[in-house]
Amino acid sequence: MECKVAWLGTDGMAFSAETGSGHLINMDGAPEAGGKNLAPRPMEMLLAGAGGCSAFDVVLILQRSRQAISACNVTLKAERATEDPKVFTKINLHFQIKGKDLDPAKVDRAVKLSHDKYCSATAMLAKTAELSYSIELVAE
Hints:
alpha+beta; GMP Synthetase, Chain A, domain 3; three-stranded mixed sheet; OsmC/Ohr_fam; Redox protein; OsmC/Ohrsf
């Protein structure tokens, strides 16, 4: 896997990343750090990636478990260290799963499997952060 990141100029703290799959992502810093708030912060991208990785696992596992899932939303709330490096210290992933006749045990199993076995992003973040999750089922 490869990613190229380029600084977008001397008048700010904006960067453009080109992923190995050919996609472009812009990032920017907070105004107090010299950025212009024109794009997500790099740490926000890291948190979003963890949510996407885990949601991917959960949806795939539930589909393979023949659950009639129609939506999967993940809200991540994170705390960071106060001193540099300001790593994530706590992250909660709240899964809102919508579907018809969902089996709560299968949903819980899918989230646990992502959390304990499959999600590479959360596995890395767990090296510095206490990870937790919660589940909300929404019936159709």
